[in-house]
Amino acid sequence: MSENKEPQKFVYDFTEGNKDLKDLLGGKGANLAEMTNLGLPVPPGFTITTEACKVYLDSGDEPAELRDEVSAHLKALEKRMGKNLGQADDPLLVSVRSGAKFSMPGMMDTVLNIGLSDASVVGLAAQAGDERFAWDSYRRLIQMFGKTVLGVDGDLFEEALEAAKQAKGVTVDVDLDAADLKKLVEQFKKIVTRDAGRDFPQDPREQMDLAIKAVFDSWNTDRAKLYRRQERIPGDLGTAVNICSMVFGNLGPDSGTGVAFTRDPASGHQGVYGDYLQNAQGEDVVAGIRNTVPLADLESIDKTSYDQLMKIMETLETHYKDLCDIEFTIERGQLWMLQTRVGKRTAGAAFRIATQLVDQGLIDEAEALQRVNGAQLAQLMFPRFDDAATTVLLGRGIAASPGAAVGKAVFDSYTAVKWSRSGEKVILIRRETNPDDLDGMIAAEGILTSRGGKTSHAAVVARGMGKTCVCGAEEIEVDTKRRRLTVGETVVEEGDLVSVDGSTGKVYLGEVPVVPSPVVEYFEGRMHAGADDADELVAAVHRIMAYADRVRRLRVRANADNAEDAARARRFGAQGIGLCRTEHMFLGERREMVEKLILADTDDEREAALAALLPLQKADFIELFESMDGLPVTVRLLDPPLHEFLPDITELSVRVALAESRKDANENDLRLLQAVHKLHEQNPMLGLRGVRLGLVIPGLFAMQVRAIAEAAAQRKNAKGDPRAEIMIPLVGTVQELEIVREEADRVIAEVEAATGTELKLSIGTMIELPRAALTAGQIAEAAEFFSFGTNDLTQTVWGFSRDDVEASFFTAYLEKGIFGVSPFETIDKDGVGALVRSAVEAGRATRPDLKLGICGEHGGDPESVHFFHEVGLDYVSCSPFRIPVARLEAGRAAAESRGSDSR
Q1: What stretches of 510-559 show up as alpha helix (H) in DSSP?
Q2: Distance CA 616, CA 536 (A)
Q3: What pLDDT sits at residue 2?
Q4: Which of 12, 306, 789, 897 gets the most CB atoms within 10 Å of its CB?
Q5: Residues 402, 348 contacting (CB under 8 angstroms)
Q6: What does the pLDDT look like over 607-659, one tens digit per residue?
């Protein structure tokens, strides 16, 4: 007998949910429910779940039960409010707003004032005692509904609005009176009829139902998908829909709307931060259409509401234990809370706020570590403008998202993307941005707007992406049609260089030189925590990094090939070198020496080439061991794709052909061309390289092992502590490793005997071929350590040539959602990661004390570091600049796993 299952519930009243139901109710719905539970003034309403959206997106239609559930909740809402949706004499109006689990500011759709019609607008005017307010609300509904639900070009409405203002001789929409707005409504309805092929719907329930579907559909708009890819938000979550009874900020000077932050999202400092706009609805603030006043001004405009808001902000920050981003409306002196969420913040603010909350006893150090991430730390390591430079100030706006950005001025997103793809650095300049500008914002180095504040679309999205942004630079007049900006008599044309300082809000003409970040200076040991703003940031970074270092299990090494990089890596906190690429030691002037070795025809020629290389290698290793004294140094034996060390076959062929035509052929060039033809490979990355080269060229690896051993012996005799590890590259079978190991052990023994020095040199291999990963248990019999070369492993698992595919089709794969992120940037856990996991298990089964690391670029990628912690590696190795990022993420991975274990 089958069990009776309760029918799935698709609609929740605000009184039914809580902040922990974000998967089901979306962030907005969950937090509206939480504020309702806290007894805060939230307009009544209900939420349609993300599950309903998923059904709609999968099947193309709403769940069969949804309409009845919505009707029941609407009826309850009407009873509570004492009026019906859109009734002619006293209409209930509602907003229909999106709300996904993760904040996607401006990416999905909202429609306000649902329920207004030709009949109910008159009733609203009578009830409010304000005809202008009613017609203003109606024109907003038609404008939003037309663009969002019916797909009408939004510029058509904007142009009609601008024309109405020009005809009236005013510059802002609040100066239009009821008669003006009534005419505008008629124009807007005609635009809808003409461009949508249907009349604006007068039935309020039809309006609501169509708006709900439009919000569902907005989950898969191009801009929403682009934003999710950028922020790595899964595409299968869906959005909730929030139906909320309307409260009105456009009822006159005693009404308004605003956005508040419990701390400054740009700096992290405590205080009164936000924007307020009198006689306006909420979309006016985030759209940046009218310039706002600072939130602090609300105290003089409406002290009662201001004081109440301050208490609510304190309540929310204490409850959420974090910076809160709040949307509110004041309707004739009555404060209403429309939304709260944990606010997006700049990288610097994230570190400051995390340590402030620890000091205030709201969170512990482990939680503070989870509140920041490696991407934010990397942003803090970017350069800043040189204060001592001579500059030409164009203007000043609001410092919305910090950083120093220099680029060519562009005035639309299409140009920003086009120029960026051509290698140009650009600054996107707009009056205000909107969600359609997202691709241009991603392409730009920085963003500048003449309108809007810290809560405008440009500011919120830029902060989320870590892009430099200055908003509300009012003195700058942006002319997008003529593609230029003007400040007084100064004109900046498209293509002219400008510099934008997101930390101060200043905008400069031309290129301003940059200097190192104070955070980099701290890691370099040139700066210590003090009293000023930069030092305060350094102090916050120092505290969190110290905790990360205490708790992390993964050690962090550097990929470094010379003493200078090694020394810098050590200052950045490297605990050794995980990859020294010896072929990099022979680029430049030494390249010809390797060429002679590869092209040697006789034993004498080969031995002469090796004899010339030995002292150079030994000197290199002595410097490296000295820089990393007391720490492990993994030296990879020569692994050059031959084409990097041989003359270009085309250039050499042309040179020989020209010489023959002049009858002065060079014997050396002819011999060289024959050798290059013989060794030419169609795919050098899969050819004669790595261990294969060591087996084919007698004495090559022996020379390198001897240089390593002699350098280690010399350092040891000089009272140093060299800890060299020899790594054999591109091994595919244990037999290759056994042959090379036998030769290496013999050479090391010879050096020990000759120098009278005991050397403890471990020998291991690089796992960078699928076969090596699959036979790791066998290979571990001859290897004391594995280092995963995930760059090559990714190429060989996917069948990608990195040098070719990133330029040819990766962009299309990312746009189509085949990749969420490039597998060369973040490790492919399902494919490459599965091989790493199985190799770890098999290797340790054979040799329990097998040391395991990774030295591909994934070693410095935040998400990949968490994976390497999970599978049990001992260390990651990355470029020197990424070492602090890897240290932080290794700490976060350890804290995260401890937290999950305790649960």
Answers
A1: 518-523, 533-551
A2: 46
A3: 46
A4: 789
A5: yes
A6: 888 888 899 899 999 999 999 999 999 999 988 766 566 666 666 677 767 77
